[in-house]
Amino acid sequence: MSSAVEAAKRKTEAAVTTAKDVAADAPAVLQKAKENPKQATQDFLHSPLMRTALPFLNGGAAGMVATTVIQPVDMIKVRLQLAGEGVKTGPKPTPLSVTREVIAAGRVLDLYTGLSAGLLRQAVYTTARMGFFETFMKSLTARAERNGTKVGFAERAGAGLTAGGLAAMIGNPADLALIRMQSDGLKPAAQRANYKSVVDALARITRSEGIGALWNGAYPTVVRAMALNFGQLAFFSEAKSQLKDTSLSPRAQTLTASAAAGFFASFFSLPFDFVKTRLQKQQKGADGRLPYRGMVDCFQKVMREEGPLRFYRGFLTYYTRIAPHAMVTLIVADYLGFITK
Fold it and tell me: Is residue 286 part of a domain?
């Protein structure tokens, strides 16, 4: 018993001594940072913790900047996808007609409806997907260097698919809140939830439908994210690799690669984005049933009742949203990666 007490006493004394040493060194560290702030910043950025965290922080910041720029286009895209639901010969709105309708109603700020949810989604989803992708790529690159080989497209694709799937599961609640907030204005005034913010939306959905409802549409969200990341991150990384030895400047290479990535991301992910929007928007009817039982059921009903081309309704709007978002995200992430390397 006494030996245990003695051991605990020694550990306590050692901890106190360490704390005193750290406190004693603190003024010197602060003075060094004051005399050479640039070096202090470099030391901090190159600490093991920051080297692990930076891909996630840079990715999240880049995604939030891009979302702020693109939010009105995203709002129009959601309205297009929800128009004429369940009717094959329903209304055929255009991006211009949707924008005119919003402006004519005197609700220009409605184009930024759900911005708080969009920013939260980027803070969670893009932080995770960009961070995971960069972490996976660093690991793959290190392994390739050890083996004297190069990272191939299949490995880039695998990293993009995995990063997208993991991030989508984490970010689904914010994504669902965004869809609910953006679709709320389509309902009759008496039926609108009039969410005040993303926090209000998440709290009210949880109270009325249960916490599990926050993961409604998670399956197509994950599939969509995997398709989008396959198109965006894998093709961006591959394009940059192919353009590396060309006469294009580094900035031109990044712009060209991000434009190509935006197109492929749009093409592969739009059908899943369409189904995700329908599933996340749906709520129980008077009979207590949901319009769609799941992703496959939604695909089948839309195919049967609205036709296969409905999945690609608003492709130009979606591309206009995805391509600039991809370009801004990738360019900002690239720049942040450069200044913090």
Answer: yes
Evaluated on CA atoms 33, 36, 38, 42, the torsion sign reads negative
Would residue 35 count as lying in a domain? Answer: no
Rounded-to-10 torsion of CA 16, 20, 22, 28: 180
Structural domain total, the chain: 1
pLDDT tens, 187-232?
888 888 888 888 899 999 999 999 998 988 788 888 888 888 888 8
Taking the model in full, what pTM does it have?
0.59
Q: Is residue 36 part of a domain?
A: no
CA 40/CA 33 separation, integer angstroms: 5
The count of residues in the chain is 341
Find all residues with CB under 8 Å of 300, minimum gap 6, and list them: none
Per residue in 29-53, is it b (16+ CB within 10 Å) or e — as a string?
Answer: eeeeeeeeeeeeeeeeeeeeeeeee
| Range list of H helices, the chain | 2-35, 37-45, 48-82, 95-104, 115-121, 127-147, 153-183, 198-209, 218-229, 235-243, 250-281, 295-305, 315-339
Is the CB of residue 184 less than 8 Å from the CB of residue 230? Answer: no
Domain membership of residue 230 as a residue range: 46-339
